[in-house]
Amino acid sequence: MITANNLTKTYGDRELITNVSFKIGNGRKIGLVGKNGCGKTTLFKILNGTEELSDGNLEIRNEIFGYLPQEFNFPKELAGEYLEKRLDSKWDFYKIDALASKLKFKDFDPYQQIHTMSEGQKMKLKLIESLLEDPTTLFIDEPTNHLDIEGIMWFEEYIKHLDITVMMISHDRSFLNHTVDEIWEIDKQQIFRFVGDYDNYKEEKLKLIDKWDQEYILFLKKKAQLETLLENVRKIKGGKKRGKAVEAAKKRIKREVEGNKKEKYTTKKVKNIEFDTKVPESKLMIRFGNISKSYGKREVFNNLNFELRGKEKIWLYGPNGAGKSTIVKIIMGIEQPSSGNLKLGENIRVGYFSQVQTNLTSENILLEEFIEKTGIYFGEAFGYLNKFLFDKKSVQKRVWQLSPGEKARFAFAIFACKDYDLLVLDEPDNHLDIETKEVIEKSLNEFKGTLLLISHDRYFVEMIGVDKVLNLSDGEIKEVV
To answer: Which of the chain's ends, N or C, has fewer CB atoms near its CB within 10 Å?
Structure first.
């Protein structure tokens, strides 16, 4: 059992969490949600002892923690060599094989260099490392970022049947719906607990916001009534009688207004994104004609054929390594096919959002980088960035200092400042918090152009409203009916 009493965490003059109390244990499956920067990962670090508290008390009884971070940093060595160092004896290597089998890590090779592994393989390697400790509580930070759909569905089943306590940070709403018993949200420096899955949390949170709004309205009415009372008693004739009445009214204001202050619930959201396009439905946007791609002797796919026409919204999915991002790079001219013909529509404006924002590493401050990348006039640049929740302080950050969530939001700000006829989006929802995802979903749902989307977030795909699904697997592409 983990018992927290009045936990407070402060960075400088900013409080992330204030006087929060809770208990964790008994094999519960908890989803931890909240905006990027609200303190979710910090709370994880406090609980597993890698971050100091500012105030409060944390009592941990008979717990062994496992931690699966959002980003992995492995040394340059063999997978088996790395894991063997976590064993009491090299004769215990059978434990690693047993865990690899339990995790359905079929292609686990102890002699493989870790840096050559896929992100999904690295995640399973980290999970084996955590499970070797026989943890009683497992903390997992954004697990679905590294998995394809098949991997996510496997992980859902694995978590459901794991007989220890699990707390997960996740922005994947479908994954949360399939795995957790309750949702904890960090909001207004507090933790709010909702029993049930993500959809139930969403419904209950809206009811809670309505309740807060009603309490705020009643507070304003009471405040107005007491202020009117104070004005009236000040008109009483007779100094002694007036003085007593004024003093009584002030005490009542202090007790019922200042001592019971309510504030209107507000939340900052990324503003809606609008793209202006007038592409006719029949217009050819992309045609793959018998396109093949190989890297040396490794064939990624062979003789792929498909078309995109105006106003189509297509979801391209498949296992990691199948070549989805390679298809996108061929379309964008970043890579050339080994054979076959690619045809792009004439006079179309193409917008490309890459899965990995490798170009966001400069020493520039955000404002300078944004102007450089977009050509937007200095006087308009801050207003545009502010729509994506970058305030006067954060636009002075260096680009390389951005968190993964901030990088994704900043990249989308650059991407969204132009109008496109064809959007090519490779995992655009990675690292975005749920509120930002919802804004982008709405914008893409209303988009009147053509969309080619790669995503492992089933909820995100459903809300966009794709009208065609293509599955890339085993070197072939098939339409899913």
So the answer is: C
